[in-house]
Amino acid sequence: MSKRVVVVGGGVVGACSAYYLARAGFAVTVLDRGRFGAGCSHANCGYVCPSHVLPLATPGAVRSTLKTLLARNSPLKVRPRTVLANLGWFRGFARRCNARDMMAAGRAIQTLLNSSRLLFDELIAAERVECEWEAKGLLFVFLTPKHFEHYAHTDELLAREFAMPARRLDSAELAALEPALNPGMAGGYLYESDAHLRPDRLMAELRRVLTGLGVEVRENAEATGFARAGVRATAVRTPAGDVPADHVVVATGAWTPLLNKELGCRVPIQPGKGYSMTMPRPKLCPTYPLIFEEHRVAVTPFASGYRLGSTMEFAGYDDSMNRSRLSILTDAAKIYLREPLAGPVQEEWWGWRPMTFDGLPVIDRSPAAENVVIAAGHNMLGLSMATATGKLVAEMLGGSKPHIDPSPYSLARFGR
Ligand SMILES: Cc1cc2nc3c(=O)[nH]c(=O)nc-3n(C[C@H](O)[C@H](O)[C@H](O)COP(=O)(O)OP(=O)(O)OC[C@H]3O[C@@H](n4cnc5c(N)ncnc54)[C@H](O)[C@@H]3O)c2cc1C
Which residue in 87, 125, 105, 82 sits closest to 380, CA to CA? Predict the structure, then answer.
């Protein structure tokens, strides 16, 4: 009989883990406390972006974060009471805002991003996944010459240290490449190896593929803990009863710290709340996915629609829909785009990014149970890192040689 794995969490990380586990011959059940794919993986910006190697903790990030404590409505916002309630997390973040830690995190982020990008190509082709996948790159757009020139340092760093060059475009070249932009932009950088997809379509397709592989998906099934025999978990406890398991994968995104006691460690994850708005495509729809660097707003053109997204708020587990955060998205779009909006708005959404203070996920065994693997904390890049994470999880449980070095993602880096 094949070994039973219970994957807790039906987001993109849990779904990709379930996929590689099922392909490796495990009998897999996915549990989700709500609906499969309805967490942070539902309406994010859809970028699969190897260009995004740098973590949030960079030199100077403390100063810009402190400014947000006073700002009324900036794209990055930290509530003072969230800082006070989570001093350890913010101290850890502040300590990593230096060049050495940034580079180390960047290398470990890049390993997952590069592997995932290749694995997305493979998975989409092998399983005929219809998720509006387009591999045409990602265009960073700059409004002011000052910011455009300043970004040249980052571009040079990415090219030199991470072999991630971009195509630099002056104002006229940018206007010619992307006619949906307003005239007079300062310039742009095109990262040609990036791709994008429609996240809700991906999750629906992953569900189809998983079902075809015999994976059972149980919704409204919250994992509350584990039944144990010595150092092993024997079942996942849910209000509807125990689900027997030979192995467990905990892929619960921003909710992971709520299982800290069961996992025998404190996984340092904070919810980093972001928003998106989805609409039909405007008549003059951007050809490329765009990032407006100065305003930190992203635009994703899908074959079936158009999305504005981003903003980051550290406000604990606040589940309210704050409309002023949505207006940050529309206000920025009006500055950059000839036709920034289209109606009717189909979805207004927020999601909790699972933020660790060093920008890296945790992919490691639980100290409390040797057959429980945690795969959580993928920050702003959970979609972009999901396939490599899933493959690594399957390798850890199957005992095969890992395709990437798992050590940067271990709990040991937090001294536990
Ligand atoms: C506005 C925005 C834009 C973004 N854009 C991008 C992007 O372009 N590219 C990119 O790579 N990333 C992006 N991200 C980040 C990305 O969405 C996340 O990193 C990713 O979705 C995290 O996936 P996950 O599977 O870990 O978490 P989730 O998708 O949140 O899944 C976790 C699941 O676990 C379930 N769960 C929790 N606790 C339990 C429990 N006890 N029992 C059972 N189930 C449980 C939840 O219900 C949920 O379904 C964006 C995020 C936001 C908010």
Answer: 105
How confident is the model at residue 62, as a pLDDT?
86
Sign (positive or negative) of CA dihedral 82, 88, 91, 92: negative
> What pLDDT score was predicted for residue 1?
67
Q: What is the pLDDT of residues 296-339, one digit of tens each?
A: 999 999 999 999 999 999 999 999 999 999 999 999 999 999 99
Give me the long-range contacts of 80-85 (CB less than 8 A, separation at least 24). Answer: 81/316, 82/270, 82/314, 82/315, 82/316, 83/314, 85/316
Distances (CA, A) of 326 to 68, 82, 274, 348: 17, 21, 9, 8
CA of 250 to the centre of ligand 1 (A): 13
Helices assigned H by DSSP within 127-273 = 145-162, 171-177, 199-212, 260-263
Best mutation site among 13, 44, 291 for ligand 1 pocket (most ligand atoms within 8 Å of CB): 44
Indicate whether residue 305 lines ligand 1 (CB < 6 A): no
Cut 0.90: pTM above it: yes
Give SS3 for 333: helix
| Ligand 1 lined by 40 (C-beta under 6 Å) | yes
Cα–Cα distance measured from residue 308 to residue 139, given in angstroms and rounded to the nearest whole number: 14
Q: What is the DSSP string of 191-216?
A: ETT-EE--HHHHHHHHHHHHHHTT-E
Ligand 1 within 6 A of 390 CB? no
Single-letter amino acid code for the residue at 273: K
Q: Is the CB of 31 under 6 A from ligand 1?
A: yes
Q: Measured from the CB, is residue 214 less than 6 Å from ligand 1?
A: no
Whether 383 and 12 have beta carbons less than 8 Å apart is answered as yes
- pLDDT value at position 75? 80
Angle between helices 199-212 and 12-23 (to 10 degrees): 30
Instruction: Report whether 244 contacts 4 (CB < 8 A).
Output: yes
Could you tell me which residues are beta bridge partners of residue 365?
373
Ranges in the chain, pLDDT < 50: none
Report residue 372 as tokens: 């429980």
Residue to mutate (ligand 1; options 252, 262, 263, 373; most atoms within 8 A of CB): 252
3-state secondary structure of 22: helix
